[in-house]
Structures are given as C-alpha cells and as structure tokens.
Amino acid sequence: MNLTRRSLLLSAAATAFLPAFAQDRRRLVIVTGGTGGVFYPYGGGLAKVLSEKMANTQATAQVTGGSVDNVKLLAEGEADIGFSTIDSAYDGFTGTGAYGGDGPQNVRLIARLYDSFLHVVTAEASGIDSIAAMKGKRVSVGSAGSSTESIADRMLAAAGLDPMNDVTRDNLGVSESCGALADGKIDAFFWIGGLPTAAVKDLAAGGQTKLRFIGTATEMTVLQTRYPGLYQERTLPAGTYAGEDADLAGLGVANVLIVSGEADDALVTDILDCIFGNLDAVHAIHPEAAGLNVANAYIPSRVPWHPAAAAYYAAHGVSTP
Asked: Which residue in 67, 137, 239, 286 has the most C-beta neighbors within 10 A?
C-alpha cells in the first residue's frame, strides 16, 4: 500500500496561497480500515471531533486495509493516529505473525476503545455448522495481512484444520465477503469487527441469503491458552442482526488507538484531552463509541502504553500498574 504523507497533505504550491494561520494548522492523519467495518466511521467521526474541538488542528481519516496496515504506517511515520486490534498491535510490537518479515514495529497504545466480536458467517444452505466443518470449503479469511486473517488462521488451527491447505482461501474485506456469500462465490467468511458491522447488518436484513452465525467458544478457549492476554469471551446478543433470536458465545478482542513510539508527549495529551473532554460528540459517532470513558480506556496490556497516555490516565485517577 502506497499511502504516504505527501498524498494526504496539500501540495507546497497550493499551500503557498493559503493564509498564514491555515498553513500553521497542525494536520493529523488517522488510519482506519475498510468502509464496511466500524474503524472507518469511528475514525471519520473522531477526525471531525479533533478538527472542531482541538485548537488549530485539521484531522483526516483515511481508508486502509486495517490493523496491520495501520501499525506499519504509524511505525513508518506515515500517519499520526491509528486503529488496531490489540492482538495485531502486539504482533507488530513483537515483530511476529503478519509482521514476521518486517520486524518489530515501534507503536504504543493511547486508548482502548471497544471490543470487537469475531463474526464467523455462512449461509444456512451451506451445511456448515462449525469451523471444523469448513474443511474443503471456500472461505474468506479477511483482507491479506489483516487482523481478521490472523485471527481466522488461529481459529482454523484451533479447530484442527490446516489454514493453508484445508480450506480454499479468499482474501476479501467485509463488504466483499458479504457480497461473495450472497452471490454463492464463497461458503463462509471471517470478520473481526464491532457490533453491529454495517456490511453484515445489510446482508442479514436483505433476506437474499439466510445466514448462520457460528459460535467459537470452544476454539476461543484454545486461543486463550496459546495467546494469553489477547482474547476474551464476548457474546453476540440476540437481535444484533436480523434472524438471530438467541445469544451466541464467541471471541472478543479489544480495539485500541495507537501512535508511533516517537509521538510527541504534548500531542498525545492534546488528543486525549480532546477525546475525553468531548465525550458527548464521541459517543454519537457510532454505537460502539457510546461506552467510552476515561475509566475503561486504560487496560493492562502486553503492548506498552505511550508514556504521556499512561500519565494522563494516572492523573485522572485510573490505576495504571
């Protein structure tokens, strides 16, 4: 992905004709995810809040492939703020998983936002009723290099399958996965995202394909053993999507805001001041933003917190061991 700061900012020629106050505005790039998930609308809303409420600042949200892209862009200095799942941030920080060929990425946490649910979706007509039953089927495991792909591979392995050989893999984002399932081009797909995810909600409400959501409680227990501290139990509540009339037990993973380890202390403090000083506006962005507050934005993590963020939470009465 060739996302560079040069492509995101005004050219020098154009900037020369702007008033001095406009040229001096601090410009922030927020890297999010695909348009069908929660990261993108959440990031767009956050960009609006920062632009309107943070002094002399213009923030812009950018579509990306998701967590893995975002971690790399931040580490490379091509973005200022990014969304990521906690497991992808950890893999990046340690240089493992999807980052094995790139080495450790210098990123830090500044806030825990909400928890995603691992959607494992198939059509009732497929006959698939478990992850193990995907053997020999065509399955979308998420965009190449995404956090969805990492979790999908771990889930397939936890179910006793070889992720590379026991399924025919398609690397599709959530919107593309929904379309491919509706068209009968794939048998199932994985998606790690907030509740509700717009693309999945539209697919379920459309009625063209009767969906089945597969529980992952058994595989999640395996992942908790293999990857301690990264995954937790989460429930898909009945009624989240059309046709689902019972709660479904599955896997959750925290979603976090991250910055480069080189990010300026004052910038991090300003960002957090703006977010938590304007929670009414933040809560209105998306249902998954409605529960954010200072008390739950800090969690113990295997990914280091930016020092200015840790100091911010401590100053606001949050225990930061």
From this structure: 67
* CATH code: domain of residue 99: 3.40.190.10
> pLDDT, tens digit, for every residue of 73-119?
999 999 999 999 999 999 999 999 889 999 999 999 999 999 999 99
Half-sphere exposure (Cβ direction) of 165: Cα atoms closer than 13 Å: 2
The confidence score (pLDDT) of residue 3 equals 45
Report yes or no: 253 and 86 within 8 Å, Cβ to Cβ.
Answer: yes
| Residue 208: domain span | 116-253
* Identity at 118, one-letter amino acid code: L
Instruction: Mark whether 68 and 120 lie in a shared domain.
Output: no
pLDDT band at 163 (very low <50, low <70, confident <90, very high): very high
This prediction has a pTM of: 0.83
pLDDT tens track for 267-277: 999 999 999 99
